[in-house]
Automatic annotation (TrEMBL):
Annotated InterPro entries: ND/Mrp_TM
Limits of the NADH:quinone oxidoreductase/Mrp antiporter transmembrane domain: 6-119
Organism superkingdom: Eukaryota
Entry keyword set: NAD, Plastid, Translocase
Keyword Membrane: no
Main location: plastid
Protein name per Swiss-Prot or TrEMBL: NADH:quinone oxidoreductase/Mrp antiporter transmembrane domain-containing protein
Amino acid sequence: MFLCSANDFITIFVAPECFSLCSYLLSGYTKKDVRSNEATMKYLLMGGASSSILVHGLSWLYGSSGREIELQEIVNGLINAQMYNSPRISIALVFITVGIGFKLSPAPFHQWTPDVYEGVQFVREISTSLYISEMFGFFKSSWTCRREMLSPLGRRQNFYLFK
């Protein structure tokens, strides 16, 4: 949410880092599990690499725009200087897109995500608990439907209770 409402470079950099910090802590939750340690190291290295790519793109854009930090001022400066078709701006935007892409792991940048999620025990526990709760929900709903279908007076009794 902070990344969507960002108005300057600092917020664009700090918002994914705050999100990633919590994820680093959750992925390294179990210290003695080898798979969890491997997943945490992969996640930390990919996060560091993507942060450096993002900062590199932001610095290219900062230097090209006349040392402005706010996004509206950058756009106004690039339009006034007629640098919006410059290859520097294209390179900066590519670096920023790749940096944020590896942080958020959308479709072309998601190759590392399944490997990290496989090693994290916390994710395995949550997915197992969701699966079990869905099974119990299915059994509960099927039992309720079966009880109402077999009870000839079930609907009539409930109707009189709520009247």
